[in-house]
Records
---
Amino acid sequence: MKKKIYLLPLSLLAIFLAFNWSCETEDENDELCEAFDGLPEYCEIPTICCPTDGGDCYYVNPDGENYYCDSDLATDTDPDGCAQAENAYIDDHCDTTAVTKSIRAEMHKDLSQFTRKLMQKAREQSVCYTN
Amino acid sequence: MRLSKSHIIAYTISLVIIVLLAIKLWQHYSPKHLEKVRAKISVAKQQPLDIVFGNESAGLSVYMYASYNCSYCRKFFTEVLPELESFIEQNQIKIIMRLTSKSRDDRLKRALKAAVCVNHYGNFEHLHKLLLHDPKVVYTLDFQNMIDEFSTKDPFVGECIDGEIAAQHLEKNLKEFNQLELKGTPSFVINDIVYQGYREPELFKKIIKRHLSK
């Protein structure tokens, strides 16, 4: 009988632990993803995500593991060190059999030029702009 | 009936666990929007250089202290603001964005000044999109050149950026942010109630509806 009385707190503890464990919310991913447009038709539109905690950016791979940039390889023209990841993405998701070197270079440009496109629009249409 | 020592221990432990469980349940189910924190000061009404999303005449002002460098501020613009369009279109609310930055970086400061000045004298839409997409762009030479171009193209914008007016506006925003004892961005003040941090679209809509129903 003495032992049975401990069943109450034990069962309550089990409920508490189960609730505590099952209701734990996952941390939200603090990152911004952006789909790029303007790529040639034979290349699937990639999405690049950049975690804001300082982690490396990556290209989302819909078919498997993502393609991670490497900030250690960053250069002035490639501030996030994404050149290798871009190459890997292009190899896997663009029809590269018919792609010449120049087209490949064009793809790289398209991937990184989205910001430039936005800046060009801002440059042209922010002040003294009339439709 | 006298309780034995074992009973007392068991009941005490049970009681503690029940209390813990109740706290846990309350924390889990209590909606964040019910957390009411009254603002330490009354925020200044709409200022000429405030960046406003919505009509000036809208009934409810949502003051947003934000920075383009903060990912959840950007998330607000990409995920929450579109969901608030119906309120904005019906002239029920306006979002007053008060750019807040403690950075001493001259390039960032100048970019923020350009943002408030372009918004005031020109068309802010594209600059806003650019800053949302890539806030780090402000550190590039291209961006700084673009600001120079703005100044050359429109003397009013130039005077605003390089004069005192925009700098004072941004300082005022920061002072207000500090006086409100806000801890980070985004923070919102609606009817002198403070909401710190990002909230999902549905929750934000609930907050808005509650204020509109008052």
Note: The beta strands of chain B are 37-38, 51-53, 60-66, 93-99, 187-190, 193-196.
---
Amino acid sequence: MSKFAILSQIVLDNKPATISSAAANATDTPTELQLSTSDIWEVSGLRLRLLSKLILSASDTVTVTVDVNRIAKDGTVTALDTLTLAITAGTEVTGEMFIDVSSMVFTDTLKLTTTTTVLGTATYEVDSLLEFSAPIQVN
Amino acid sequence: MNIVTLSSLMFDPKPDAATAVNAIANDVYNSPLELRLNLGQITRMTYLDSELVGSLIFDAAESVCEGNIRLTDGVTDFHTEAFTTSTTTRLDFKSTKINLRNVNGTTPLYLAIDITVAATVAVTCELHGQLRVEMPLLITD
């Protein structure tokens, strides 16, 4: 029996847009940068971890949610999970969560949607990283 | 048994923002030598599925600039992505699937920008690019 594992990272957007926190914007990963059809969703035991950092242009009180969205082949969008990033009188906060991707299939696309839920006055960006890990056992 | 890995390989996490696009020329931008990608042993795989994705960010809106982003090793271009600016400052792009199995694993890959229709004013851009590489592996008894 052999055991090994894979660990890899995906950055969906190297240069995320700057967003005003003064309105309840919902911003998607640009279409071209979404994670499209992939065999990775078929890997048994796959675990996906989202790591995000919210950066404000100036000290402010802002809350942003990051939805991890599955887009099915027919275009149906399903939120798999939501990470909340809240800043109170500050400029940066980080967050992470594991996401259940067992419902994903080969033909699915994945995108992130950021939404301002507690409004402020500063602008912000959200930098995110997806980490894939899968233990593999060969008998 | 099927095993798949998927990873994004960055060319440059902090690309130079001073690439001028107001003159027709090849190689107005090349990835820095030290940050180029050496795929090494993974090019021995029978199938190495990849996509070139990224964003071209301009310092001002430019409506008449055209050019190409090339994935190259300096000899062979493995993909050419044509771009045409619009009135926005950001162009996102995604290539068709590229099979990198014939890439020489010891020759670094990099991104190059060629300008074929020059901007009419002094505009600069920065190229954020990554290779998303999928490595399928099949183990049989």
Note: Chain B has no helices and ten strands.
